[in-house]
Amino acid sequence: MSETRCRNRLGDIANALGVEGKPVTACFATYASQADNSVDLKQLAKKMDHGRATDAFGFDDFLEEWKEKKKAVKEADMEEHYNKLLRYRLYKDYPGSEAGDGYWTYSFCRDSWEEESCTWHCRVCKECNDWREWHCSTCNKCTYGVSLPCERCSKRGGGFDSDDDFGQDSDSFWCY
């Protein structure tokens, strides 16, 4: 009888980035879980570096400083510089990623930088949504409207904001 071994893909990524015990953002959790194989961190960082809505680099202090420093980084040190960007935006509660004015996050669903206060990621639907959308627990779909009844089932409320912690070792969602 063969034994199936469960590995936490996010644990592998955390080890590669030197991050221990930090939960990832909901959007990245979905992105990583849907990847066919391993996640290419170098390509991912380049994607984030050149993502749409690049004005994020002008309004987020960390991103602006990161972009400016990138101009002087030698090729041999570029991987670590990209890893700083990944650590900053893939992990919640990473030093420097505290919410505040000009706070931006990367949406892998939309392939663009988004203002944190205007976008959230639904763990159930596995997609980023406008801040005015919410997940209806009655019909199990995201729906538009802050206080309006659900556009599908006409129920009011019963929704949730998906801000769970992802990437914990006990989360079987990450077995592959």
TrEMBL record:
Q: What keywords are assigned to this protein?
A: Metal-binding, Zinc, Zinc-finger
PROSITE patterns recorded for this chain? ZF_RANBP2_1
Domain RanBP2-type positions: 120-139
What is the name attached to this protein's record?
A: RanBP2-type domain-containing protein
